[in-house]
Amino acid sequence: MLTYPQIDPVALSLGPVQIHWYGLMYLVGIGGAWWLAARRLHRFEPGWSRETLSDLVFWVALGVIAGGRLGYVLFYDLGSYIADPSLVFQIWKGGMSFHGGLIGVLLAVWWFSRRQQVGFFRLMDFIAPLVPIGLGAGRIGNFINAELWGRATDVPWAMVFPTDPQQLARHPSQLYQFALEGVALFVILWLFSRKPRPTMSVCGLFAVCYGAFRFFVEFFREPDAHIGYLAFGWLTMGQLLCIPMILLGAAFIWWGYRKGDVRHETVS
């Protein structure tokens, strides 16, 4: 069994102000995606300025935060928030949903694409390879916070997390998700999008791969205590939300290749 590294979730304290590693991971994810987007901007839309890209990053980041928070409320703990609506704004207590964040991003991109008169799916194909940076950084933040840990196990790399009231050896599922949703997904999408691909195929591949990776890791991750297992007594909320994501992603890939609308910008 491995020893969990005792990392203070607070990276820096300035009097009453505390800067948490989890918040810094959001900055890493947004900043990394912004930098890579700037590198390939001339291949995507040569007429766009850096200011236009900055606007896109702002609206996407807003979609991630607002959608992630509201998604958690709706999908994972609606009863508590109905009882006390003020909890919605208490983001320092945690509670973010990837699937909610995805919906927020889709809405932000839809609005921005109409404003800039750029195809929605073409813009989504541009954004999709950048998303794993934020996903990977977020999972490192979860690990530092010792939250969203895995199920009890006796594998040699199991860890006892300080936030676990039962103090059981568990899968470090946050690191599994970092490796799959962050590193592996980034490599797959980056390599796939280096060549001209039909519109919808890159974001479709993102949906399929993320959904499959998340569905797999959920078998090692402890389900939310207040929800537990849902369908068939073994599927979690995360897995149920991934099923339509995988199906839609496969449909996007199929439809993109059927239409054959191949763009010629590639990742640098």
UniProtKB/TrEMBL annotation:
UniProt keywords, alphabetically: Cell membrane, Lipoprotein, Membrane, Transferase, Transmembrane, Transmembrane helix
Keyword Cell inner membrane assigned: no
Topology of this chain in the membrane: Multi-pass membrane protein
Transmembrane region(s): 19-36, 56-76, 96-113, 120-140, 175-192, 199-217, 229-255
One of the GO BP terms on file: lipoprotein biosynthetic process
GO terms assigned for molecular function: phosphatidylglycerol-prolipoprotein diacylglyceryl transferase activity
Pfam families in UniProt: LGT (PF01790)
UniProt entry tagged with the keyword Membrane: yes
A GO cellular component annotation in the UniProt record: plasma membrane
Subcellular location(s) per record: Cell membrane
Pathway of action: Protein modification; lipoprotein biosynthesis (diacylglyceryl transfer)
UniProt: a 1,2-diacyl-sn-glycero-3-phospho-(1'-sn-glycerol) binding residues: R139
Record-listed E.C. numbers: 2.5.1.145
PROSITE patterns linked: LGT
NCBIfam families per UniProt: lgt
Role, per record: Catalyzes the transfer of the diacylglyceryl group from phosphatidylglycerol to the sulfhydryl group of the N-terminal cysteine of a prolipoprotein, the first step in the formation of mature lipoproteins.
HAMAP family registered for this protein in UniProt: Lgt
Family: Belongs to the Lgt family.
Protein name: Phosphatidylglycerol--prolipoprotein diacylglyceryl transferase
Species this chain originates from: Halopseudomonas formosensis
Biological classification of the source: Bacteria, Pseudomonadati, Pseudomonadota, Gammaproteobacteria, Pseudomonadales
Gene designation: lgt
